[in-house]
Every structure is written in C-alpha cells, then in structure tokens.
Write a structure and sequence with these properties.
Its main location: cytoplasm. The protein is mainly β. The protein has one helix and 18 strands.
Length: 252
C-alpha cells in the first residue's frame, strides 16, 4: 500500500507513506520509485531506522534502534555502518569511533559500563588491534594489542609518579610426545605480564601514533591485566550484528 506523491511516470516521487508486504512501514522521501532522502523505516520486529537513504539503502547520517535496545547513531554507506558513529549496546557499553563495512575499524573508544574501564586505540575488523590505552579507574596500561589481547612491550602508569615497564608474553602449551599423532587442539591462553623495570613518568609514543599525554592513576596489583576486559568486549561485539536489514524485500 502506498499513499503519497508520484511523478509523471507514476513512480513514487516526493513524500509518501508505504506498507510493505512483510509488515514493515516507511514514511519519507522517494525519488523515481526508490527511498531517497530523509525517511523513517519501522520494522515489524520492532527495530527502527530514521535518517538518510539513497536508492533504497541507508546512506548518510542515520540512527538505528535495534530490537534488543541497542542503538547506532552515525554514518552509513550502502546499508553498512561506515564512517564515524556511536553504538550503545544493550548492556550499556558504548563504542564511539570509526567504522568500516559494518564493523569497528580504525580509531575508537570503547567504554565498559559495569567497570568504567575504557579502551582507546585502534581496531581492525571489529577486533582491538594496534597501539592503545586501556584505562581503568585507578591505573592504565599503554601498549599494543593483537587479536583483542595485549601483546609485546608496554607499561602500566601509576598515580604516584612512576611507571612499570615490561611485556606481555604468549605462553605456549607443551604437548606430550604420545599425543603428537593425534589432532592438535589449541586452547586459548592468556598472555602473561612480565615486568622489567620501574621508571619515572615518560611520554608514550608509537611509530604509527603521535605522542599521547596521559593523566596518571593508582597502581594495580601485579596480577591485574587488561586481557579480561578485551575478552569481555569481544564477546559483547558479537551481540552487535543483530539481523536488521529486512527492508529491501521490495514494495508493491
């Protein structure tokens, strides 16, 4: 069903309201029969998108409200989250930063609502990877991440004017000889922090990043590691890809 403007060829053109065969509805601008311009699309599932369209696809600035209560507000390109935007997850966590092809990609900040911890750094295809800071309530870690885990050299910054330098080492599991012919099953192993020295505060800089000045905060116990927070984020990220794009099933 359609109620709205049409052009001389009888195509939907201008402003109109439509109800799709699947129960979804759209109200907004059309151009030559396609959703183009500003509009609001309501899904039968309860999801809602309001923003810009180009030839039936979300393109430009827009806000998507997902059925689980999460929300994305930002840039869209060809129906994908792409550019800069903020995602508020159902559990209250937030990510603000760059997106590419529907995933967190580039520079961004992820805030964990329950703990107040914050990851500020690089992302690759939705995973924490590259130079970053993991900032907790009373201390912070500065270093690099690989596949969502801290890796290699880095440092913890404390509020009493010193730093603990060291590196995260991936501990390899030993395999018994009689198991060599059996299929090897790899189990996830947390990287282990190995401290090397304590110094006064020094600037933090990476070859591919400009120096970052960081406020100082309290020392953690030696066993405290940002790895757990990274793991929590990756799990939450899986909830992000809620099936949503039912809208292109066609209009009558």
């Amino acid at each position: 069903e359609y109620d709205g403007d049409r052009n001389s060829d009888g195509e939907r053109h201008g402003y109109g309201k439509a109800r799709l065969p699947n129960g979804d509805t759209y109200e907004g601008e059309y151009e030559r029969g396609l959703r183009s311009g500003r509009g609001t699309y309501r899904f039968k599932s309860g999801a809602l998108y309001t923003g810009s369209y180009l030839q039936n696809r979300k393109h430009g600035k827009g806000i998507f409200f997902y059925p689980d209560g999460s929300k994305y507000a930002g840039d869209w390109v060809d129906d994908q989250r792409q550019g800069h935007g903020e995602y508020t997850y159902a559990n209250g966590d937030t990510y603000t930063g760059e997106w590419f092809n529907h995933k967190r990609h580039g520079q961004g900040t992820y805030v964990y609502k329950d703990t107040g911890s914050k990851y500020v750094g690089r992302w690759v295809n939705g995973i924490q990877e590259g130079p970053a800071e993991l900032i907790h309530l009373n201390h912070r870690f500065q270093g690099r991440f690989l596949n969502g885990k801290p890796a290699g050299r880095g440092k913890y910054v404390f509020d009493f004017g010193c730093e603990q330098h060291g590196e995260y080492i991936q501990i390899e599991q030993e395999k018994e000889e009689e198991e060599e012919e059996e299929e090897e099953v790899s189990l996830p192993v947390e990287p282990k922090w190995k401290a090397s020295e304590i110094t006064k505060l020094t600037p933090w800089a990476h070859q591919d990043e400009k120096p970052t000045s960081a406020p100082t905060v309290n020392e953690p116990s030696e066993g405290v590691s940002p790895a757990g927070d990274a793991e929590e984020e990756n799990e939450e990220g899986r909830q992000e890809e809620v099936p949503e794009d039912q809208e292109d099933q066609g209009e009558e």
